[in-house]
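Researcher: Going back to the complex we discussed earlier. I've cleaned up the inputs and rechecked each line, so this should be the final set. Can you rerun the prediction on the complete assembly and write out the structure?
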Amino acid sequence: MIAAIARPPIDWPDLSPELVLLGTSAICLLVAVLVPRALRQASAFVVSLGGFAGAFVAAAVLYSHTHEGAGVIADAIRRDRFGALAAVIVAGAGFLSTLVLWSEPRRGLARNHVAEEFALLLAAAGGMVFLAQANNLLTLFLGLEWFSISLYILCAVNVEKVGSLEAGLKYLIVGSFGSAVLLFGSALVYGATGELGFPQIAQAVATQGLTHDVLLLFGLAMIIAGLGFKSSAAPFHMWTPDVYEGAPTSVTAFMAAATKVAALVLTLRVMFTAFPEEQRLWTVALAVIVCISLAIGNLAALVQRSVKRILAYSSVSHAGFMLIAVASNNALGGRALLYYLIPYAAMSVGSFAVVAARERELRAEVTLDNLAGMGWERPFFGIAMWTFMLGFAGLPPTGGFVGKFYVFSAAYDRGWIWLVIVGLVATAVSLYYYLGIIRSLYMRPAAAVLAVAGGQPPREWALQLGVSGALAVTVGSFFGVQPLIDLARHAFVQLPL
Amino acid sequence: MSHYGWITTTLILLPIGGAIVFWTVPLPKAWTASGAVLVSFVEIAFWIDAIFRFDFSRSGLQLSNRVSWFDDLGVSYHVGFYEGFTVWLVGLTVVVMAAAMAYAWWAGRDRARGYYGMMLFLLGAIVGVFTSQDLLCFYVAWEAMLIPLYVLIGVWGGPNRVNATLKFVIYTMVGSLLMLASIIVYGLQQGTFSMLSGGQSTSDWVFLGFAAAFVVKAPLFPFHAWLPDAYRESSAEVSAVLSGVISKAAAFGFLRIAFSLFPGPAHDFETPILVLAAIGLAYGSILAFRAPDFRGVVAYSSLAQLGLIMFGLFAFNESGVNGAVLQMVNHGLISATLFLLAGAIERRATTGDFARLGGMARGRPALATVLMATGIIGLAVPGSTAFAGEFLILNGVFRQGWLYAVVGAVAIVLAAMYMLRLISAVLHERSGPATEGALDLRPAELSILVPLVGLLLFLSAWPASITHRVFAASGPAQQTAIAVDRK
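Model: Rerun complete. Updated structure for the full complex:
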């Protein structure tokens, strides 16, 4: 009795970014079987670039054509500029990551299945965009699993690489645990309120006087924990360094940037729209997570030698910085988060891309020791890495500085000057390892001469293009704060508050 | 935007643009070096142009240029010359930076494109610090100063440079992050980050945040632990810039920001800061007297002189502040000259240790004359410009308490002791083992050092050229912490 099920009207353009990403992902899969082996990598690469560019444009069009936020498709997802801006950032990060992924060294099995990598990348981005638009607990979970499963495979895709499989497995187990916690929390919230939609939950809590309901609070706590796993905020970050280190570096680049965008944007959306009545609790809970993330991320990064691990812990600490914006629970915080994500995504992709470049010419794991002298040998990558490190450390002239400034302003605006102080102390500590990377790049004598047989290392124009793009966004977002903040402002006001 | 606001922006962007060109265009080494020196000379020309366009009788902001940066928090790129003292500090910057770059050109630095690019970037950042009229803009310039310094010391410094940079950066960043917290608090309270339209604040904590950044950068006792390492490990011309110009940015911060935005708290903390300045003055002088090498003497004398300048500023009267501004310029020129001389001597003798130096006056008249002239001016011999500055400072601080003036006067005696010790250890006494066959100053070096000494002599003849042009006769000076005791 199919006709008995009332199907909601579907306005397909609302889903255009996801559809573009999924469509190109499908094309990539076709490429994997139909295109001759010699052309496979190039055609998948082109399709993937096209997919991300298309999604970028689609999301931008969605942004500009959405004048008022509204729940669509039976209120399951929400069409608003908030989600659209997140989609733009994810698509941009995906585009840059594709450029990095193109020349990832592949051998054996991975060489034959290169098109599948691009397909998975596109699919993961589609899931992230979907997640950012989610408007009820089911679409939330659907989006989360959608991109997580793609990423589990991507982490393990390089079967030749020691640690890649391990990374995939670790991510799968810990990530599934996170998903399970989130799902359980959702169930509890549904049990308490009888609602799945974010606005309906808020309404039910307000009208039925559920603010002190134990079931609801447990559910909320578990949702926060589950999202914490995805945004790799401490104490839910245990998988981050191992997975970042073991996964192919280009995949790490995408994960570090895009996952964080989707997870944090969704965290803000859920907290602001579904649990406004509980804000006295979750703001404090998030503030505690912020403090733990900043402490663990920064202190653990101090003692690492592997650059990928340093960057992994730095991403934990940045989850902390960006959660300050969410914990502030004000409009300034919303703007701060959306702005911060733009340079952050660019710096993440860019810095991992530089690590990938070094890795490819050394054919070894990049540590602070074998990074030595890179700044002089590869001036462009050196300058780029330097800029990214300044950006992570929150120094001008990068968007990282303005982002931190906004985040701290939001915390102050809420009246939490102590959180500002915590953030500043964390920044001061973080300088040690960010500057440590710059020190390796420029101030240490090169440890070994890297005479690659046959002279020059491969010219990786795609990688350089990707790094240039990341560099342009990192520096450009410092000078062009006004337009970006305007975008963020218009996006934030469309949240149903 | 006022008339000729483009001059200020040009003063900032010209060197930064030059830096970007040198970084990106693969020019030969000689071209890069000459180009950088040329840019620094053009910069001086623009500054001279600015002097003529600046009306010293008019109070407030001139030659200003403003572009909104982001409006929801009220932040803008806003630069200009605020009162006469800005003009002199910018002048000190462009002159010392030009001398430093010319010296580097002469001494020859490897990786020239990186080096001169960093120097030019530093120049633009320092001018930005002195001319910013928006607190966030000021902070950006302040941090932008740190980045090239980190690289200049860390890459082209001495053997112990990595530790020196680490100490330097950690110290200064902790200070400046506290300043950032204060800027956020102040800006959000006032609704604007503009130094001109923002009101005055009475918060002691916010003042202390700013003060933290300034006392570390100056440095003031007991925040000076980074100073000896940084000054010894840098190349000579970077030390000259550090001690000649960067330390003045800190004193400028007190004068421009702390006094005009936090007059109340500045008065509250007058005594502690004067006491710290007094300790720094005496302690620095004694350390300078005991230092075993040329750079050590100049480094610690810098600590002492900054104490003296803080005396003048925190005297809160016209005499003290005028003297402090004059002394900022004096000390900038003197310590820059001395550090460049230290570099010249180290190139010849391979060391700055007094134990291995000595007797260099014999057969090296130019070196002896330049060092002697600078040293004599530096020890504030009556008639010199340093004497004028120190006299005004002591006169000013005497009204805050005679004990401060006593400490100051004793320190001037100590200054004579360490300067004369420096002069005799290098020029006189027995000929040291390291000085044999050392050449006299070459014409190229003289062409860098003689103008600096010439400026000092000019100021000695006419110190009022600065002291009468620190603040305009009427205007916002009265609203700041400085109780102007004009007749």
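Model: Worth noting: The mean pLDDT of chain A is 89.
Researcher: Good, that matches what I expected from the previous run.
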